[in-house]
Design a protein that fits this description.
This protein is of the alpha/beta class. The chain has helices at 4-11, 73-84, 100-106, 121-126, 150-153, 167-175, 187-196, 206-215, 241-256, 259-268, and strands at residues 48-52, 62-63, 70-71, 88-91, 112-118, 128-129, 134-143, 159-163, 180-184, 201-205, 220-236. It is globular and about 55 Å long. Mean pLDDT is 89; it is low at 1-34.
Length: 272
């Protein structure tokens, strides 16, 4: 698989800076309409790019304890997207992850959902997905003292925590069918549950588990890195193709002008 950076850089050479999207979860391709006018789109609030997410998914989204403001990799991406599009960014309160796509599909509340969201065929059937901006895999996390493996976790005596509506939840249901899968509102809830012994493991995105273990959960460990080959995209209403085109053009500009590299280095220590 080519890297997300190679993909976007290659795509920036096409007309209007638009990218030919690459799919994931089944090898699907992007449905981006490259004929859409990137200068013609509607916004919920004039002059503002209104964003929604689940704001408990660090390092991509979280709430700053001192200021109460959202922060994280995706938050900085949204700010730069708005800047490159000549807009201000506007963040709405956090909502459950599995409500994000329906909210964007319904329209009228937010312009985009940016939430560490994997591009899948199911989501693309409901909303437009931008071209990919992050590559990701899944992971299995247990206590540092645990001797569990993927095989031993696939047992009726085991409970696996997941964030509801995620590809991690789908993977756990498909690959650990004998275990009890427990959907939760946030990854933080899942990690806390494993730490306390309430759950035996959590399945979640690898960049998130690595960051969380490094920052807050030194008593947990990743026992399996699952090469699912996922890519994150931004959800946009199918009724607003011009906005999808504008977001893709801005993502390409952010790669070419070094903005993306700077944000990656700030949150991950290096370019991804």
């Amino acid at each position: 698989m080519i890297s997300r950076r190679q993909f976007i850089q290659g795509g920036s050479l096409v007309a209007a800076g638009l990218l030919a999207g690459c799919g994931s979860s089944g090898g699907s391709t992007s449905t981006t309409d490259t004929s859409a006018d990137a200068s013609s789109y509607t916004l919920v609030n004039e002059g503002k790019l209104t964003c929604i997410s689940n704001l408990f998914f660090p390092p991509f989204e979280s709430m700053n304890e001192s200021t109460g403001d959202p922060e994280g990799f995706d938050i900085d991406i949204s700010k730069e997207l708005a800047k490159h599009m000549g807009l201000e960014v506007n963040w709405l309160p956090s909502q459950d992850f599995d409500t994000l796509v329906p909210t964007i599909k319904q329209g009228g509340k937010a312009d985009i959902a940016i939430a560490g969201m994997t591009i899948t065929d199911a989501r693309k059937a409901e909303v437009d997905m931008s071209d990919p901006y992050v590559d990701s895999n899944q992971s299995i996390v247990v206590k540092a003292t645990s001797t569990d493996t993927q095989d031993t976790l696939n047992d009726s005596s085991k409970t696996i925590a997941v964030q509801g509506g995620t590809t991690g939840a789908e993977w756990a249901q498909e690959n650990l069918p004998k275990a009890t899968i427990k959907p939760l509102s946030t990854v933080i809830d899942a990690m806390n549950g494993v730490q306390s012994g309430l759950y035996d493991a959590v399945v979640c995105d690898l960049p998130v588990s690595k960051y969380q273990i490094k920052q807050s959960y030194s008593d947990l460990q990743v026992i399996e890195e699952i090469p699912t080959g996922e890519q994150y995209g931004i959800a946009i209403s199918k009724d607003n193709p011009g906005l999808t085109a504008a977001v893709n053009a801005a993502l390409a500009e952010m790669v070419s002008d070094g903005t993306m590299a700077a944000i990656e280095t700030e949150w991950f220590g290096s370019q991804m």
